[in-house]
Amino acid sequence: MEFTFSKRARTLTLVLIVAGLLATVVGIMGDTTDHHQRTWASLFVNGFFFFGIALGSLYFFALQYATESAWSALLKRVYEGLMGFLPIGAGVIVLVLAAGHFGHLHHLWHWMDPEVTNPDNPEKYDALIAGKMPYLNTGFFWLRTIAYLAVFLLFARWFRKRSLEMDRQTGDVLVTNHKTNYRRGALFLVLFAVFSSMLAWDWIMSIDVHWFSTLFGWYTFSGIWVSAMVAAMVMVLYLKRKGYLPQVNNSHIHDMGKWVFAISFLWSYLWFSQFMLYWYANIPEEVSYFMVRVDPGLQLHNGFRWPFFITFIINFTVPMVLLMSRDAKRNPRFLMTVCALILIGHWMDVQVMVQPGTLGHWHMSWLEIGMFLLFLGVFIRVALTTLTKAPLVPVHHPYMDESVHHHI
Amino acid sequence: MADKMIYAVYDDPEVLKSAARTAVTAGLKVSDVYSPFPVHGLDPIIGVKRTRLGIVSFMFGLTGLSLALLGMSYFMIWDWPMNIGGKPSFSLYQNLPAFIPVAFEFTVLCAAHGMAITYLIRNKTLPGMPARNPDPRSTDDKFVMELRTSANPGRNAEDIVSVLRGTPASEINERSSH
Question: Which residues of A fall within a CB distance of 8 Å from B85?
Fold first, then answer.
């Protein structure tokens, strides 16, 4: 069945984009920070968050092939739709990085300033950053960034192209291509395992450049993963409500709900492990990251304590309590509400990762919310447009029969 | 009148399922099925209620969590305040992050053991208990359906057997309870 982008959905996404744009403009006019740092930080947060949803979908798509999962064959196109935003998200990230490094338009990444590693400049020289030079230098940084994005975009393009081709294939050709997908999926997972951690160190952890955490990569990755699971869930529920995907039954929805539940726990586990170990050891250079975020005395000054803990409550307690029962995972209206809440929770999480090191104070008003609505509108528009370009259910898939009869 | 048990033996899970459907359609109540492995989709046919083991597990988990927090606040805060790593040791709230790993593990321990033991007791399969299995072949390659006259008021044994004869049972045995 073909998906048509309804007039109502077009209007709604346009309203989101226009409203977001207006709020962003109002926000930018009120942005009094040095170098419009706040605008750039907001652009980066949203670019990364929505890039993360697309990347998480690509990862999950590859995972389904690598694990030879059958139940999700029906949902393949939904993940492809969410992957549609990948190039735009990558573009925004590169734009923000390049504006900081080459344009000197902001200083989100303090270490990019060549003076901080120049021993002849005693005023700006920072021995700790200089010690990280073998890894954290701009040349190698750009090489890595380009490598991650090139690999992700190439794989996404390849998977999509092959997926459309397979719609016209049957028999041995289809099976051969399916097996190639299986191998490519596994290869992608290997690359993604390394790159997902490294991109978190490079793009986000290096904002708080004096601090380091070996867990940070997985923590960011789990956030990306759960955001993608939630976005896919919302998309499937939307499509089902509109009468599409009639073969997707309660069991598929239930299993997707289990993914949201399980990966929320993974995220919470990593969040807590990182927090608890630093809190317990209380070593000055290690605990600095959390001091800024949780110290009750600093809360009055920078306002990060409540966003930090509220984020954890939304992303851990909400899915744990509300999605534990079987009935909850089979109730579309309820799931939609909970998933929307978790999505906002993970967006807040990226804000809490980025804002302390770049702005120093908690900001949440026109600019942040406007930028979110703008990106949300664009993301939905791109995803739905991608869905219109191919049959909503893959025409041929070796596991289609198994997926249609999925029953748990 | 003594309760009579009728056992219909089948060779295949799918045949068993269609036979169960036939029996239920004929208005019979299937008391139980004995099979070498769980038969997917059988429960709704013979009207087995959904298990409440998940609720039990949740309650055991909650008990474990409460016990762990209660125990640690007694040991480490109230009875003998411990100074570990210079952390303030005057309230549970201030030390909570340090107690979470233990609380988590104890929750899992209680939930898992509680659930397993409840399951064994409820099924009467604790170690050393006599097997209730009517036909040992159902632990190998046979699928045995049990119907009781006591569970089917108004139907006598001959009536039940005649319904089962209409299904591809490899044999039908009758037994009286003592």
Answer: 280-282
Q: Name the pairing type of β-strands B30-34 and B4-10.
A: unpaired
State whether the Cα torsion A376-A379-A382-A384 is positive or negative.
negative
- Cross-chain CB nearest to A282 (options B54, B86, B101): B86
User: Which residues of chain B neighbour A329 with C-beta distances below 8 Å?
Assistant: none
Question: pLDDT tens digits for A333-360?
Answer: 999 999 999 999 999 999 999 999 999 8
CB contacts under 8 A, B 93-122 vs A, are: 97-98, 100-101
- The answer to whether the CB of A342 falls within 8 A of the CB of A318 is yes
pTM value? 0.92
Q: Where are the alpha helices (DSSP H) in A167-295?
A: 171-199, 216-241, 250-281, 284-294
CATH H-level, domain B4-36+141-176: superfamily: ACT domain (3.30.70.260)
Residues of B (2-41) whose Cβ lies below 8 Å from A: 40-41
Return the half-sphere exposure (C-beta side, CA atoms, 13 A cut-off) of residue A120.
1
Query: Which residues on adjacent β-strands are paired with residue B10?
Result: B143
Among chain A residues, the shortest Cα distance to B88 is held by A280
